[in-house]
Amino acid sequence: MLFKNNNSSDISEDQIALIEYAQSRIKSKKRLFFHFSLMTIGIISLLISNLIFEFKKEIFLFDYPWSYWICSVWFILFLFHLFNVYVTNKFMGKEWEKKQMKKLVEKQQIKIADIKTELEKEARVIAESQLFSQNNPKNTVTLIAAASENNIIGKDNKLIWHLSDDLKHFKDLTKGHFVIMGRKTFESMPKALPNRTNVIITRKTDYKAENAIVVNSLEKALKVAENDDQPFIIGGGEIYKLSIDIADRVELTRVHTSIDGDTSFPEINLEKWQEVKREKRLKDEKNEYDFSFLRYDKIK
User: Fold this and answer.
1) Average pLDDT, integer, range 196-213
2) Distance, CA of 91 to CA of 285 (rounded, Å)
3) Is the pLDDT of residue 4 over 50?
4) 150, 180, 215, 234 - which has most CB atoms within 10 Å?
5) b/e map of 78-90 (b: 16 or more CB within 10 Å)?
6) pLDDT tens digits for range 95-130
7) Minimal CA–CA distance to 236: which of 288, 179, 165, 283?
8) Residue 101 dihedral angles phi and psi, to the nearest 5°
C-alpha cells in the first residue's frame, strides 16, 4: 500500500537509504582503521628514531624530544577521530531516528486516510441499503449460505464440500426469486442459475454476463429486485458482510466441521438475530458431513 513498486521483490527507497547509510559507516570505520594503522607505524618509527639518533631536549625549551610531542599530538587527533566516528556520527543516531519517525508518521497517516475512506464507503452503502429496506417493508431480504463451525464458506473461489441435500435446499428456496451475488461468485458457477433472476454486483463498469443483470452497488441490486417479496443474497464473503446489517433473514446451512478456507460468513450476533428453525441432517453417501438447516430472523 505504501510503495509504488509493482514487483514485491523490489527494494524500497527506505531500504536503499539504509544500505547507503551503512556503506558510508563502513567507509568511515575503514578510514579510522587506516588512521590507527598509520599512527601506530608512525609513532613506532618516531620512537625508534629517537632512540637511534638520541634526540635531546632541543625544541621550544621543553624538556622532551620533539618526537614525543609529535606522537602525543597525533594520538590526540586520533582520539578526536575516534570520538567523531563512534559518538558524534554514530550509526542510526538522533538525526536518523527523527528522519525515520517522520517517515513512519507519514505512512501511518496515509494508512489511516485509506481506512477512513473505506469505512465511509461501507457506511454509505449500509445506510443506503437500510433506507431501501425501510422503504420496502414487504421485501424480505434473505442471506443464504453454507458455513462450517468456524464460519468458512469457501476456498480459492470454490465450495469445499459436497452436500447434495444442501444444493436441493438452496434450489427449492431460491427458485423463482432474484439471487444477488458478487462477480467472483458468479464466475465460480458454470452459468447463470436457471429459473431465477441473476443479479451481479461489480465495480467493473464494462462487465457483461449472459442471462444476468449487472449493477455496481448493493443498493442498486436491491432496487432491481424490489418487486420480489424475498430476494436472496448468495455471496460471496464481502457481499455477505455488506448486507447482513440490512437483511431480514438468514438461511444458514451449518456444516458441523471446522475447515481451512479464505472466505468466511459473518458472525451471527444473537442479540440481533433469533433462531426460529433448526433441522439436523446426518452424513451419508451423498453428504460428506453432518449439517443443520438453520433459519434466523432479525429481532425487531
Assistant:
1) 94
2) 68
3) no
4) 180
5) beebeeebeeeee
6) 666 776 777 777 788 888 888 877 776 676 566 556
7) 179
8) -65, -40
Beta-bridge partner residues of 253: 146, 293
Q: Residue type for 182, please? A: G
Counting every residue written for the chain, the total comes to 300
